[in-house]
Amino acid sequence: MTIDLRSDTVTKPTPAMLEAMFKAEVGDDVSGDDPTVNALEEKATRLFGKEAALFCPSGTMTNQLAIRTHTRPGDDVICDQLSHLYQYEGGGIAVNALASVTLPQGKFGKLTPELVRDSIQPDDVHRPLTRLVCLENTVNKGGGCYYTLPEIRAIREVCDQNGLILHLDGARLFNALVETGETPLEHGSLFDSISICLSKGLGCPVGSLLLGTRDVVKQARRYRKVMGGGWRQAGYLAAAGIYALDHHVDRLKEDHRRAKAIEPMLKALPEVDAIYPIDTNIVIFRLSETVLATDYVQQLAQKGIRCSVFGKHLVRFVTHLDFTDDHLAELQKRLA
């Protein structure tokens, strides 16, 4: 048995999801006539109370389309220094949008109203114009921590006071929602645009959605085409997204339960110095100064445990729908 905790992107479609994909009615999405893609986009807009949605191959694309659509060359984007769209999207803020970036340091990657306010560029010809604020929920490099509605409302207020646009990288937003009991509609009302990923905790093979106003999505669709992101009979993939939104949201709690169950296993290991708070399905732990994460991950691989290096002394586990209670029990044996 291989225990794969590298990411929640490693999941395979369930038999029921595959059946939904095989039965999908499809067309040409570039021409706008793939009925299953249209149904997924309409479902997402209703769920979040937005005007329009755009189905894309990846969350990196939906984030980058949002940034390019919301900004002009030379504008400035505020995001935490740990944010995915800065750390893991290939310098896309500069490459795609020709924008600069200001990187405040929040706690576990979460911004506060004060950090946002202090990061706004002064009205000075020497400085770029601050245009956009981006939040990530949950925060990948923050160990899966999440924002609550009051925290987001306070940041929204700062944005409104300063004429700023607010975008959400909600790749794992549903992980946050099942913990807080908050709704997609409540979050949709606070953001100008939202990116949600279908291929992480929700278990789809591919796909993310960008949600926003009709004008934002219309422009993003043009940029998607420029990036080579137009696709044809994508309804087979969209069908997986519809199935996931209908069947795979509530079960995220199981991933969180298993992630929390890993904590005492790690605490018993002498080489583990600290563990980030485990709020959802991400487990990040710090090794002692004498142990390199690269070496440790290789040692775990020899035991059939696959995971990710997350820093010089940091290792990440991510639970997901293909990590079962049997895997959890086996993990405890192999870590001991």
Short description, anyone?
With 336 residues, the chain is α/β, with parallel strands linked by helices.
Record keyword descriptors for this entry.
42% helix, 336 residues, 17% strand, alpha/beta, seven-stranded mixed sheet
Number of helices: 14
| C-alpha-based Rg, rounded | 20 Å
What would you call the structural class? alpha/beta
Largest sheet: 7 strands, mixed
Percent helix, as a range, is 40-55%
Mean pLDDT: 98
Total strand segments: 13
Strand content: 15-25%
Global outline: globular
Side by side, the strands of the main sheet go 2-8-7-6-5-3-4
Q: Could you give the distance between the termini?
A: 16 Å
Uncertain residue segments: none
Can you give a write-up of this model?
With 336 residues, the chain is an alpha/beta fold. Helix content is 42%, strand content 17%. It is built from 14 helices and 13 strands. The strands form 3 sheets. A 7-stranded mixed β-sheet has the order 2-8-7-6-5-3-4, with helices on both faces. Strands 9-10-13-12 form a 4-stranded antiparallel β-sheet, covered by helices on one side. Helix 1 (15-22) crosses helix 11 (235-247), helix 2 packs parallel to helix 11 (235-247) and helix 6 (113-119) packs parallel to helix 7. The chain is globular, with a radius of gyration of 20 Å. It starts with a strand and ends with a helix. The model has no long low-confidence stretch (mean pLDDT 98).
